[in-house]
Amino acid sequence: MQKILYSLFLFSAFTVFGQSKKFFEKGEVRLQHPVEKINLRFENNLPFVKVSINGKFYNFLFDTGAPTVISHTIYNELNLKKKYKKSIKDSDEKVQQQIFTELPEMKVDELVFKNVGAIVLDLNSAELGCLKVDGIIGANQMAKLFWKVDYSQNSLEASKDLILFDIRDYEIVVPFESQPQKTPVVQNSVLNKDIKLTFDTGFSGRLEVSGDNIDPKTLQHIVKTFGTRTTGAFGTATPAPGYIFRVDAMKMGNTIFKDERMATGKTDLIGNEFFKDFAFILDWSNNKIYMKRIGASPSTLESFGFSYRFVNGNAMVTFIFEEENFPLKIGDAIISINGVKLENLDKDAVCHYFINRVEKDQNTLNLKIKRGGEIFEIKLDKKVFLT
User: Fold this and answer.
1) Which pLDDT belongs to residue 214?
2) What is the CB neighbour count within 10 angstroms for residue 217?
3) Contact 139, 64 (CB under 8 A)
4) Distances from the Cα of 229 to the Cαs of 4, 9, 92, 167, 235, in angstroms?
5) Which residue ranges of the chain lie beneath pLDDT 50?
6) Which of 63, 133, 193, 244 has a 20 to 30 A CA-CA distance from 268?
7) How far apart are CA 296 and CA 298, in angstroms?
8) What pLDDT, on a 0 to 100 scale, did the predictor assign at position 234?
9) pLDDT of residue 284
10) What angle do CA 1, 350, 95 make, to 5 degrees?
11) How far apart are CA 237 and CA 216, in angstroms?
12) 100 bridge partner residues
């Protein structure tokens, strides 16, 4: 049974306005060996790699849904030059102007990337700061190589020659369209609709489709929700009604996937909760993704029916299942969970409890909450949904 993620990240799914493809084709890469084995750390349902720039090490997200990104700190440390500014829209449709620059050199183990186009972003805000992300290895950078990924083994390999990755065991073949920033978009058929999903390793969730693509009347296994569980590049997503549901069949590439769990959201994405059941190879030369099943996550959902995030050092309820008589409401301040104090925390404590959730591996929660000046005590038992 799958526990609902308490914070789903959408660091990616960027849209860049008015930008030619040339910027995202910049750069070159040099390998020391025919196949390079890369350090990979899969944590909090996100893949990270260690990157060296000018002899200093940084923590980068390996993110197919985004272009290459560096922090303002790196931009200033290297005294890089601004090429221009362009507007960017994040996964929650928030738009900001950002600096576009060129990174002279970046080393990823023994891979050496030179003159790669990069966007400069603030990566210290909210939950991003807790994960200590210094940058993103984006799709424009990845597209210069073939990549073999297996989260279960913390395994990441790169090569210039697809033949060095034996794809005969990878029976699932998914064609994709490549966006100007090289992000792969795959065709998906579900509930008699064709939906284009961003293949997004910067998304910690499973399958998310925009509400416009789903008619709830056609769904049999469904949970109504309200609020937000997502954080985009420019902040937390706007609260909205939605659904978590299960479908009998979903066609992607040459394969039909059975009993898949999905949720509605602002964008159409496929992410790491799905990918971690597979080893997969990314091939931008032929615009294909090859996949081999290594696990099978169940389609049922185990949850307490809510999630929260930290706002100014306080845990606030930001997402709930709309069950009859559900005791929590959006905006409730959580004073404590199972006796652990979650109010008036400093930054270090916020990050500790953001990453090490108090409710993890618990079956019963005793909450003390504050609502409208009153304090309530609430007991919640974990339940199984989408049975």
Assistant:
1) 80
2) 6
3) yes
4) 10, 8, 12, 36, 11
5) 1-11
6) 133
7) 6
8) 54
9) 98
10) 85
11) 22
12) 84, 119
Burial 278-295 (b: 16+ CB within 10 A, else e): bbbbbbbeeebbbbeeee
Tokens for 183, please give them: 């992000």
CB 320, CB 206: distance < 8 Å? no
d(CA 58, CA 151): 20
pLDDT digits (tens, 9 = 90+) for 19-78: 557 888 999 999 999 999 999 999 989 999 999 999 999 999 999 999 999 999 999 999
How far, in Å, CA of 229 to CA of 354, rounded?
Answer: 13
pLDDT of residue 219: 82
pLDDT of residue 253: 98
pTM here is 0.91
Residue 89's pLDDT is 66
Cβ neighbours of residue 311 under 8 Å, at least 6 residues apart?
A: none
Q: Residue written as tokens 């199972």? A: 338
Question: What is 229-249 written as a DSSP string?
Answer: -EEETTEEPPPEEEEEEEEEE
- Which H/E stretch holds residue 76? helix 72-77
Nearest to 385 by CA among 326, 321, 320, 301: 301
The position carrying tokens 């272009």 is 67
Find where tokens 């939950």 sit.
127
- Closest C-alpha to 292, from 196, 148, 182: 148
Answer yes or no: are the C-beta atoms of 113 and 49 closer than 8 Å: no
d(CA 149, CA 41) in angstroms, rounded, equals 11
Q: Which candidate, 63, 54, 50, 151, places its Cα nearest to that of 108?
A: 50
List the structure tokens of 305.
């029916």
CB 271 within 8 A of CB 208: yes
Predicted pLDDT of residue 8: 46
